[in-house]
Amino acid sequence: MRNDKFAQPPGGGFPSAPPQHGYPQPGFNQEGYPQPGFNQQGYPQQGYPQQGYPQQGYSWDPPPPQPGFSGYPPPPPQHGYPPQYYGAPPGYGAPAAPPPPPLSTQQTTTVVVNNGWYSRNQKNKPQSNAVGAAGLIFVSGGMNIAWSIGFHGKLYYKTSDHNFAAWFIGAIIGAVLSCFLTNKVAKKYVLIFSSILVMIGGIVIASTRNNGDATLAASYLDGIANGLVFAPFLALAGEVSVSYMRGLVSASIEQMCFGLGIFLQIIYTQSWNASSYQSYNSFSAENMKGVLSIIYGLFALIIGSLLCIESPVIMLANNDEQAAIDALRRLQRPYVLTNETYEQLAEHKKYLAQNKDLSLAQSIRQALPTFLRLVFLRGLNAMSISSFIFLSIQYSLKITYGKYGSGYLGWYIGFGVCRWMGNFVATFCMESLGRKKPTLLGLLVCSVLAFVIAAQYNIRTYNTGNTIMLLVFELFAGIAFTATSPYLSEGYPLGVKQHFISFTFIAEMLVFIILVVIDWGHSQGATYFYVLGGMYLFGCIFGIICLPETRRTTLREAQDKFSKFICTGF
To answer: Could you list the residue range(s) of the whole structural domain that residue 230 is in?
Structure first.
């Protein structure tokens, strides 16, 4: 570090004037040095000796500046005395040494990234990775939903309604169990256990042939696994994501993964049936479903064990702030502490403080309006992908192509593509268009299509048109219900969040079960679509009045919006 005692101030006056040595010349004074007789802030008073400053024994009245002078030459320091230095003017001496770093155990960094979509996605990729393993389990669940509503190969064993309702019953069992595990067992362990259940269920199906009891057991195991991870990981998706990524992360792991599972089940099952003859002892589409479940369970086990990160909100609730800071650090790239890390920490503390002020009764009262809205939407979601829909498209195709027509494959694949594409498009619009507008658009279009399908249902000459409209119906149904995933992750108060997410999921599964066990006939098809169209129209009007828009809001702000039953804003 530079020693001020040996600093020489530059000379003033003429540029060619040599530096002066010795005593200062009368009549010259450099800006930055005190004039004798004037007390200035930060300078020692003249005539009073102070520690570190010599007494000034001389003074003079400086003459006015002469023309041509750019300033006054400074008085050089007297020999034997340190110079009076109060901050260097521009260009003065050697550059000052940087100040020592603050005494802190953690250093923060300001990271500037591009505001483009790709840069934001890469920066926040650990957030989707933290919950991504649950998405693989939901893909397996989507396959089982498609199997249960009718998309399966030829079955060589006796079946009943129990076989097709087993997965939904297992999902209810898993959701109930998850209520007792809330914040008592780490979510990583729940995920690992669920992954093992999916693998066991897949092994059971893959290793047996035409065994109804084995298929029933595998459906229960897979359903329990999905029910166990549904509530914890939708809650986790909302708590590990930044506000501008929460909709994308939660929708991509739940609705888009369930839709992908339905799509895959339709693709390989119908392709399998169309491309080869299946004998009683051949490797069937059922066995292939088991193999895929094994793969999903294995990858979920590996990814969950390595990348799952617990909720920083729960860590703060357990008074472990250091662990919460470390979790937030690992949830963004690069893995360093930034100013944004501490901003998120402060926001989580506010969210926790807001919910700690609520008693259990207050939390339940605040959650009930959200529960009613989301149960209604999730029930409509179940009605859009029920066995009635499958039997309707099958009825239309039988009239057009016959019982075993070759044209089934393309229409079935189109059905799966349309459902998944609706989820896909809406997922990537969650942070641009928001949640409310795609939901209302999907409900309105589905209502119109349902009425048209019902009106033409029993007119044989219009059945091909009905098939096309069923595919478009599925496209807009996927758009309509994708927003329910972020709504579930952000709408309920923290104290009862996982419980009410589980209750919403259970209500949806009950709708599936009711639609499975009801006997369906051609004459009831039109009635079903009339009822569906009316409920979708009511849902659109209901959504305009009661659904909030929570795009890019914090969890606190989203919870406040859901606490009001009337939400007309867009």
So the answer is: 127-310+358-562
Domains in the chain, number: 1
Residue 67 has a pLDDT of: 47
Answer yes or no: is 99 within a domain. no
Which residue's entry shows tokens 């909709």? Answer: 247
Neighbour count for residue 96 (Cβ, 10 Å): 11
**Spatial contact of 455 and 529, defined as CB atoms under 8 Å apart:** no
Instruction: List 76's β-bridge partners, or say none.
Output: none
Chain centre distance of CA 553: 12
Please tell me the predicted confidence (pLDDT) of residue 276.
Answer: 53
Q: What's the CA gap between 476 and 480, in Å, rounded?
A: 6
Encoded tokens for 429 = 């619009």
Quote the tokens at residue 38: 């004037």
CA angle 354, 229, 246 (to 5 degrees): 50
The confidence score (pLDDT) of residue 564 equals 86
DSSP codes joined into one string, 40-86: -TTSPPTTS-BTTBPPP-----PPPPPTT-SS-PPPPPPTTS----S
Query: What CATH number corresponds to the domain at position 377?
Result: 1.20.1250.20
pTM of the model: 0.79
Q: At 98, which helix (H) or strand (E)? A: none
How many CA atoms lie within 13 Å of 428's alpha carbon, on the beta-carbon side? Answer: 8
Q: What's the pLDDT score for residue 87?
A: 41
Q: Beta partners for 50?
A: 53
Chain centroid to CA 272: how far? 36
Q: How many CB atoms lie within 10 A of CB 4?
A: 13
15 Cβ partners below 8 Å, 6+ apart? 70
Q: Does residue 173 lie within any of the structural domains?
A: yes
3-state secondary structure of 401: helix
CA distance 273 to 276: 6
Any domain includes 165: yes
Q: Which H or E run includes 154?
A: none
Closest residue by Cα to residue 386 from 198, 216, 173, 528: 528
Cα(504)–Cα(540) distance, integer angstroms: 20
Predicted confidence at residue 273, as pLDDT, reads 66
Q: How far apart are CA 458 and CA 525, in angstroms?
A: 9
- CA 526, 530, 532, 533 dihedral sign is positive
- Burial (CB < 10 A; 0-12, 13-18, 19+), residue 319, is exposed
d(CA 269, CA 147): 9
User: Is 65 among the domain residues?
Assistant: no
User: 83 burial class (0-12, 13-18, 19+ CB within 10 angstroms)?
Assistant: middle
Please choose, from the candidates 514, 518, 532, 528, the residue with its C-alpha nearest in 3D space to the C-alpha of residue 168. Answer: 514
What whole-number distance in Å separates Cα of residue 458 and Cα of residue 470? 15
Mean pLDDT by 10 residues, the chain (570 residues): 41 42 43 43 42 41 47 48 42 46 45 65 92 96 95 86 95 96 92 97 92 94 97 96 94 96 91 62 83 96 95 94 95 90 94 93 94 96 93 84 70 93 94 94 96 84 79 96 96 95 97 90 84 96 94 94 87
Evaluate whether 182 touches 165 at the Cβ level (below 8 Å): no
Peptide bond into 49 cis (omega under 30): no
